[in-house]
């Protein structure tokens, strides 16, 4: 597909600026450009077709089933976009005086109260821009807490081997030494190994529950108790709160700090790198260390407050505001019952799809799952040579987005599916049927599957080359 610059023809295109009807205000010559701005010149119809063609090549939740595990690619009600686009929210300047942005401050305040109720935490901040950013803030809070108690010898952060890759990365970025805790055969934290690992150098534990295998660790109270008794704090990676919101609260499971991905669970579409929000909730013991510019209720209206021992700001201004507007609109529309129903629907749909696939596919761990599940295609690979990658590519030709592949790392030939609560039973049936057909094809005609996808705009890409030597800049001839 040609780029706009390649389609540009000198003199083409149109100028729609109206004639000047105000006094001209010339720009000082030293500040003027010396050559014309190099912009593509193209007619409106060609421009319009260009963007339609781009849209045709993209695949999103509006196009079909998108079971990308660990990402919660669910349908987000369009009304929430409308609410976030209201001029009063959209045109607000971040440097407006507090008395001129009371409405926006109320959004932060009320969204915070909702998430405090959902997570069982005492205070929420919306400053971090994404999940991993929230993790980093959480690590800085834990560090500040230990320092404040003259306990800076606590340098080790415990992270189970099933963790999302961002967890060890965030802990390392905050200056902690990462200690990996092995999982048991059935995907839970190995309690004995955890007991051996904790000590006076333990700063804390980072845990996802349900974990990346889609399993809820029933030993959670025991796990958080072991860490607390050793003097550490517990961090909950709540990027995917979809399975537990309205049902179980990290605050009740013994966690001291949690981050949520509003762009997964709370109605902001993602996948194209758009704005996110990694809201962070803390128990009262960490409240004094929160970032600057917390919104609090005042005698009258709302005010900004800098916590006394703040770790500082982690982002300019107050976070990605419109994402918070969408989250609040979503939570208010659903109400406490609706939030719980969404979580129950997510878990039901995942279990339904897992069972529907069981005639041919093997879950990595047995028993019911939470909002997502992991399949292992190790046996299929041994018998037919067809890999998890081949099956994923085959799904593209059957009109679906592929699941997450080769993650978590502790499962071989892994496919991780998260159907989400917004899919209908018919869609799940259709997906299961298509995936079982792929399995059939793997046995009858494995070579054909190795050619997939044949219907997509591009065939198989050289993923290693794309990762090692990416071309990120367009060079003009
Ligand atoms: C998505 C995800 C993250 C990272 O969130 P980003 O917004 O992409 O930084 C962290 N942990 C888990 C479990 C996730 O699924």
Automatic annotation (TrEMBL):
It is an enzyme of class 1 (oxidoreductase). It catalyses: N(6)-[(R)-lipoyl]-L-lysyl-[glycine-cleavage complex H protein] + glycine + H(+) = N(6)-[(R)-S(8)-aminomethyldihydrolipoyl]-L-lysyl-[glycine-cleavage complex H protein] + CO2. The modification N6-(pyridoxal phosphate)lysine is found at residue 264. One of its GO terms (biological process) is glycine decarboxylation via glycine cleavage system. One of its GO terms (cellular component) is glycine cleavage complex. The keyword Oxidoreductase applies. Its cofactor is pyridoxal 5'-phosphate. Residues 342-443 form the Glycine dehydrogenase C-terminal domain. Keywords: Oxidoreductase, Pyridoxal phosphate. Its EC number is 1.4.4.2. It holds the Pfam family GcvP2_C. The glycine cleavage system is composed of four proteins: P, T, L and H. In this organism, the P 'protein' is a heterodimer of two subunits. The glycine cleavage system catalyzes the degradation of glycine. The P protein binds the alpha-amino group of glycine through its pyridoxal phosphate cofactor; CO(2) is released and the remaining methylamine moiety is then transferred to the lipoamide cofactor of the H protein. Belongs to the GcvP family. C-terminal subunit subfamily. This is Probable glycine dehydrogenase (decarboxylating) subunit 2. It comes from Candidatus Pullichristensenella excrementigallinarum.
